[in-house]
């Protein structure tokens, strides 16, 4: 019967798992392959305690980030729509276009939160009217807001 020992992975390894995972493998596999190639290290009480502490901190940060994203989504849902004025030309077209950067400034003005350009999904906007905007707040949390583009009085 082969003796199994506990190891902690130092890097992602497809057969065993992701970095920081504690696994039991045969002693020969660990001592002859994983440890010399710096893929893993032998687990002891202190190292296991250290890894679990880091995992707890990471989980708390993920939970905090998720809660902040939910609060931001709720505040965006209350807004429901944002308005901007553009100088109107012919055929309901306006001069220039509206891009993600313009939307970022409008959202910051309405919510006080700073957004990144990659969070905002829009198509090219060149017409006066109502357009839908998708905002990706977190990995699985999205919000839809209507953008009202109104003609500017001359």
TrEMBL record:
GO terms, molecular function: rRNA binding; structural constituent of ribosome
Cross-referenced Pfam families: Ribosomal_L9_C, Ribosomal_L9_N
PROSITE patterns: RIBOSOMAL_L9
Keyword Transmembrane: no
GO biological process, one term: translation
Keywords, alphabetical: Plastid, Ribonucleoprotein, Ribosomal protein, RNA-binding, rRNA-binding
Transmembrane segments: none
Domain Ribosomal protein L9 positions: 17-44
Gene3D superfamilies in UniProt: Ribosomal protein L9, C-terminal domain, Ribosomal protein L9, N-terminal domain
GO CC list: ribonucleoprotein complex; ribosome
Record flagged with keyword Oxidoreductase: no
InterPro entries: Ribosomal_bL9, Ribosomal_bL9/RNase_H1_N, Ribosomal_bL9_bac/chp, Ribosomal_bL9_C, Ribosomal_bL9_C_sf, Ribosomal_bL9_N, Ribosomal_bL9_N_sf
Family: Belongs to the bacterial ribosomal protein bL9 family.
Protein name, per record: 50S ribosomal protein L9, chloroplastic
């Amino acid at each position: 019967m082969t003796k199994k020992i506990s190891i902690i992975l130092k890097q992602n390894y497809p057969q065993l798992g992701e970095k920081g995972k504690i696994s039991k493998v045969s002693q020969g596999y660990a001592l002859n392959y994983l440890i010399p190639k710096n893929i893993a290290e032998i687990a002891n009480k202190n190292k296991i305690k250290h890894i679990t502490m880091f995992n707890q901190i990471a989980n708390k940060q993920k939970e905090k980030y998720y809660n902040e994203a939910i609060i931001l989504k709720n505040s965006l849902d209350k807004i429901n729509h944002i308005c901007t004025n553009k100088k109107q030309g012919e055929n309901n077209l306006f001069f220039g276009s509206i891009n993600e950067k313009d939307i970022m400034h409008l959202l910051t003005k309405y919510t006080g939160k700073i957004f990144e350009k990659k969070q905002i999904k829009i198509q090219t906007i060149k017409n006066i009217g109502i357009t839908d905007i998708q905002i990706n707040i977190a990995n699985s949390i999205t919000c839809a807001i209507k953008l009202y583009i109104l003609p500017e009085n001359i």
